[in-house]
Amino acid sequence: MHRSVFSRWAGAPGHPAPLAIALACALFITGCASPGALHTPLTQTTPAALGLSDSPPATQTAAPARWWTALGDEQLDTLVDQALQGSPSLAVSRARLEQAVALSQVREAANGPQATLGVDATRQRYSANGLVPAPIAGNTYNSGTVQASLSWSPDFFGQHAAELQAALGQARAAQADAAAAANTLATQVGRSYVALARLVAQRDVAARALEQREEQRKLTQERTAAGLDSQVELTQAQAAVPDARTQIEALDEQIILARRQLAVLTGQAPGALPTLAPRLTALQPIAVPEVLGADLLGRRPDVVAARWRVEVATQGVNSARSEFYPNINIGAFIGLNALGLDQLFSAGSRQMGVTPALRLPIFDGGRLRAQLGGRQAELDAAIAQYNGAVLDAVKEAGDAMASIQSLTRQQTLQGDAMVSAEKAYRFAQERYRAGLGNYLVVLSTESQVLAQRRLAVDLRARQLDTRLVLMKALGGGWTDDTAL
């Protein structure tokens, strides 16, 4: 039986096998279903076109791993770690990564030979008036089948390889997306922490401003009683006190909201951080690079994700192009089949066979060309999105570096103004103690000092915040490790 099966499939000795003939004919006929001219995709942007340095200083790193620890605040380190472990949004990104990896594994497994084992048993009454002849017709019999099957689709034209590479590209893009989500979350926690520290520092300045206005009101009352000031000055001094208290109350509200935001970012209940009060002066500025290097494009996870999606789209084009070529599948089976379970394992119940198959597109009404055109458009869109992501990344990093440089100059100028204001305040105090001036002048000059302190707080907070933005723009210490 084995020989007869193969003789029917392979043809007589000396004659070409039907499969070989069919394959030769297929290769000849495929000209009828042509993919047309090659498509020229969009051009990907280059680092040089964006003004990135090809060779930054050897000692320069774009961003350190766990860059937020450079701020020198252990409380912030704990909050960022909690966020990275317990954030629901980050859990979604990880789940998407696991899904993409699983799909790539499914695609990889599908490309190899597939083997199955089937065991079936049936009890059936056969129709007396059907196709089955007597003595089976009109009676009830048991039947059984035990069969092993093997199938394999050789990848002669690269379709399976393209589909596998596309699936792996999707998984690697998801891996980069998860890293981008983690980087964004760490940045949000760090910026919210700095914002809270700024509000706490501004409240300290506002509290001193309230004390000053109360002293000014008291002194104005005494001067009015002595006939040195009028009711106009007294009314102005009295109105300044509730205004200062309103500012403190507004800052208290913002502090509460900032604490609640931080708690939610770290995966905690909104009211979990009721007493958190970071000190702005305790936070250390993060060191930043002097120039932007071309390695920025390989360190930003969102840019890397866009690059992998270009690869996915490229493989989609390759897969669509392979649809114009024959699809070949080779199958084989061997097993036992018998009418009557008592005969199932006898030698005469053996069955086996080979089932080669070939599918060839010839005329499809333009479906394959339209499908290929759609994939080519997807590739162009992916390249355009990549170019946009690169441009945004360079702009974001460049803007942050420009702001950092400007803030450094602003802090220098503000420091000079602070020195002058404090010097004027000391002179006013000395004149008052010597009896050469009144206390209102002292309070007025202190107002200038408080104004400079508010500005100093804002500038330092912006300095820290902008450096956090730059760390995110530089990729947050991430590297493109494509191992899955």
Q: Outline the low-pLDDT stretches.
A: 1-16
Round the mean pLDDT to the nearest integer and report it.
83
How can the largest sheet be summarized? Answer: 5 strands, antiparallel
Specify the structural class: alpha+beta
The protein's oligomeric status is single chain
Q: H/E element string?
A: HHHHEEHHHHEEEHH
Radius of gyration: 39 Å
| Global shape | elongated
Helix content: 55-70%
Total number of β-strand segments? 5
Proportion in β-strands = 5-15%
The tally of helices reads 10
Word description of this protein:
By secondary structure, the protein is α+β, with helices and mostly antiparallel strands. 59% of the residues lie in helices and 10% in strands. The chain has ten helices and five strands, in the order ααααββααααβββαα. Strands 1, 2, 3, 4 and 5 form a five-stranded antiparallel sheet that branches. The chain is elongated and about 135 Å long.
Q: Which key terms come to mind for this protein?
A:
alpha+beta, 10 helices, 10% strand, elongated
List the helices and strands and how they pair.
Layout: H1 2-10, H2 18-29, H3 74-86, H4 88-110, E1 114-125, E2 140-152, H5 159-225, H6 231-265, H7 296-299, H8 301-322, E3 327-339, E4 350-354, E5 357-359, H9 367-433, H10 439-473
Antiparallel strand pairs: 1-2, 2-3, 3-4, 3-5
Short description, anyone?
The protein is α+β, with helices and mostly antiparallel strands and 484 residues long. The chain is 59% helix and 10% strand. It has helices at residues 2-10, 18-29, 74-86, 88-110, 159-225, 231-265, 296-299, 301-322, 367-433, 439-473, and strands spanning 114-125, 140-152, 327-339, 350-354, 357-359.
